[in-house]
Design brief:
By secondary structure, this protein is of the alpha+beta class. The chain is 36% helix and 22% strand. The model has no long low-confidence stretch (mean pLDDT 93).
């Protein structure tokens, strides 16, 4: 690579989450996309395509390194780079694949697992380090891998998220975010923590799939309560109501619940830079009395997001994350958690909207279904991703076993499904 590209503030935050997960014994901050194909593809063709992309874009076999202003560096002689593995289908295999770490320090930022199924069908399990790119980037990259007719962006590598404001102005902007967290701490959130110490350090997931009729009902509910463009507001409000219900069921009601709502920062219609997390967070807080109904939760989401945009908290969050790049990773994560008195957030939340329409085939095989799988840190130990594939809604719920039991996570997912349909 020429002139080792820097990690931007959002990349560094994702690297911080990876650090936090690995030091607690988990696999790390890796995400997955599962493609269910109608027929098998050639392993050798996939390997050749990846080799070509790695030659063109060496960042695909680099490692994050450096203490201050971390950069993408060559992984050296022990480099692994993207791997392709083949498996016969077996029970719990996808769960096992989700729980295997990537070797980030040896340049393994991507991995493809091809799962051979009965009837000549195949699943492609694509895992990537969230430090490298966000979910929308990963969708586009996967389309590029599977279809040679899709060009990569002209500017593929990571870039800073701000326009280079004077240092004094940056600190003034960053202070807005710090002041907001101080206000949140007047009723500081409290996660459930490790409630099942004998359980393995493992993350599990489940997927809720909705029919066309159910998807239409959910869209109509969101439009009625949040307006035509308020789908993410509706999803986040429902998630927080059901999170509070879960805390009530297990006897761990929190004084408040803090939800970072991801906001994409790419120009509309652009995927540049592809190998980068181009997003920031709008922080929102809910008190238990705000979560008595979906309507009251929606009111909080809408008012806080509108206030955040009006007062410049979006830009403030961007600047704060860029400034944090000057901190060593352990100190950075300590400060992130200290801002909310030891918490990171109350729920890991993602809403990737419609999956790119470019993902219809993969090496000529028809894509029959699509699944997003995320990761959550030991606090809060629970996360959710909303997305639409071919117009049908999907919700993936993922949890850490030493925080929540399978039954508790299933109850949360069932409640989420029911409330989306009947707010």
């Amino acid at each position: 690579m020429r002139g080792d590209p820097q990690l931007n503030g959002s990349d560094y935050l994702m690297l911080g989450f990876d650090y936090e997960l690995r030091r607690r014994g988990f696999a790390g901050n890796s995400c997955q996309i599962v493609l269910e194909l109608g027929s098998a593809i050639s392993t050798e063709a996939l390997k050749a395509r990846l080799a070509d992309l790695v030659n063109r874009y060496p960042i695909l076999r680099a490692r994050p390194g450096g203490v201050f202003l971390p950069k993408w560096k060559s992984a050296g002689h022990s480099v692994i780079g993207p791997q392709v593995r083949v498996h016969r289908d077996q029970p719990d295999l996808r769960q096992q694949l989700a729980d295997e770490p990537l070797a980030l320090k040896r340049g393994e930022l991507l991995r493809f697992d091809l799962v051979q199924r009965d009837g000549g069908r195949m699943d492609v399990v694509f895992k990537w380090a969230h430090t490298l790119m966000d979910a929308n980037s990963a969708e586009h990259f996967l389309a590029v891998v599977g279809r040679a007719d899709i060009p990569l962006p002209a500017t593929p590598t990571t870039q800073p998220l701000h326009a280079g404001k004077p240092l004094k102005q940056r600190f003034q902007l960053a202070w807005k975010s710090i002041h907001q967290l101080d206000q949140f701490c007047q009723a500081a959130p409290r996660s459930v923590g490790v409630r099942r110490p004998s359980a393995p350090a493992r993350q599990k997931f489940r997927v809720e799939r909705f029919s066309a009729e159910e998807t239409a009902r959910i869209r109509a509910n969101g439009a009625r309560l949040c307006g035509a463009l308020g789908a993410a507001q509706y999803h986040s409000a429902v998630s927080m109501v059901e999170l509070h219900r879960l805390h009530e069921r297990i006897g761990c009601v929190s004084p408040s619940y803090v939800l970072p709502v991801p906001v994409g920062l790419r120009r509309k219609g652009s995927m540049e830079p592809l190998f980068s997390n181009q997003m920031t967070m709008l922080m929102t807080q809910f008190l238990p009395e705000n979560l008595g109904s979906t309507v009251s939760a929606v009111a909080i989401v809408k008012s806080q997001m509108a206030a955040g945009l009006r007062t410049g908290l979006l830009e403030s969050g961007v600047v704060l994350s860029e400034l944090f790049r000057f901190l060593p990773l352990p100190l950075y994560m300590a400060m992130v958690k200290q801002g909310l008195r030891g918490e990171i957030c109350s729920l890991f939340y993602g809403d990737t909207a419609a999956v790119t329409p470019l993902l219809t085939t993969f090496f000529g095989a028809t894509i029959e279904d699509f699944t997003h799988i995320g990761a959550t840190t030991p606090s809060p130990g629970l996360g959710v991703i909303f997305y639409f594939y071919r117009g049908l809604m999907r919700v993936t719920v993922f949890h850490l076993e030493n925080h929540f039991s399978d039954a508790e996570a299933a109850g949360f997912a069932a409640g989420l499904r029911a409330r989306l349909l009947e707010p």
